[in-house]
Amino acid sequence: MARFLSRPLAAPARHPLSLGAPAPAAGSMGPRCSAASCLLFLLLLGTSDFFQSYAVEVDVKDASNATCLYAEWMMRFLIKYETNSSDYKNTTLNLSSNVTHNGSVCGNDTEAALLAVQFGEGHSWSINFTKTNETYQGDFITFTYNTNDTAVFPDAKRKGPVTVVVKDTMRPVQLNNVFVCHNTDFFEAENVTQIFWNVTVQAFVQNGTIGKKESRCRADTPTSAPTVPPTVANVTTASTTTLSPAPTTAPKPVENPDTGNYSLKSGNATCLLATVGLQLNVSQDKPLLININPKTTSADGTCGNTTATLKLNDGNSTLIGFTFVVKNASASVQKFYLKEVNVTLLNRLNGSVISSADNNNFSKWDAYLGSSYMCRKEQTLEINEDLQIHTFNLWIQPFLVKANKFSTAEECFADSDLNFLIPIAVGMALGFLIILVFISYIIGRRKSRTGYQSV
Prior knowledge:
There is one protein chain. The chain is 7% helix and 45% strand. The protein is mainly beta. Strand 18 (269-282) and strand 19 form a beta hairpin. The model is unreliable at 1-52 and 223-252 (pLDDT under 50).
């Protein structure tokens, strides 16, 4: 029988669920983690109203009660679902305190390891790990959410479990090493964004001992030296000395963002190319311009024949997704265009969502299929009334990339050679209007003179 043990609250409270370890069933491929073969810990962070965010710590034991798979992580899910009124709503699904871990598998040389948890009203999440002679890595992540959970999905049109499977992008980790990633990472597929942070995992643990050497994710790798506050010498002043206020300096204007180069691959072939500088304009509390730094931005997404998605993660605090689709311009001609853009701003420390916005009614950046779209001048994508994206030096090709190069570009009107004709045309129109007014004035004068002579 499982029981929760109370701990002092000097540190975040741990509630371990201690269980025994039975012998594996005859004929099984490997030891499985059931209700009596694992250790599961739920860690409540901070106060009880802190987003109800729990950390899960799972220690999977084999038949000899030795650790074979260990993981501790935090995660949250952003889900967009359809309501009975055919509208779409965004909801957040957090881990709850009633987490189970049925179905976890240690794995071996011929069978993948599996880490599985179940929580809430019919929700579950799992990841399987594969290994070579020297490394292990995550393979597929499977997430199932249940829209019958009316507390999370009120007025959902579709009822029942919905399963989403995504390919894990975890880099191979040396056996006996622990993979650690404190920064935020995310996967997005089928209207679901999975957010992870404070991840510690080791699959295929040997001899029951967790490794001491860490393999860090890219986001945890420091890019600059920490800022050291300056030291100030002690100064003795008379009691009557008054200090003048420090002069105020005007804030520096935000410069245009740096241009980043992004690409996606399908197998060994490049299937999407993008070059763009991105700037967010957030105006919820007060106007704020945020430049996306390409040096800390990673690209992910999917390619297809009629739909392609580019997902950018800037330093694990800004998630931007661009969705492109193909349309029939005529019976024999197809064009692509930007259909949807979604933006999520995250808290770096705990992965909580600061702001999330989506617009799926765009019809921009269109070009013939097989070509690319280019616009060097600044453009603005309005996601909603509180969030805009400014693009600079844009060059995009989401379909039919050949030889890892952009195809011939179709330029936006702002970049075209005819753009200079606009002020000329306006000037000519104004000049023609002035001449027309002058001629009308002369004709009016002549008519008035003729009237006086007749009298």
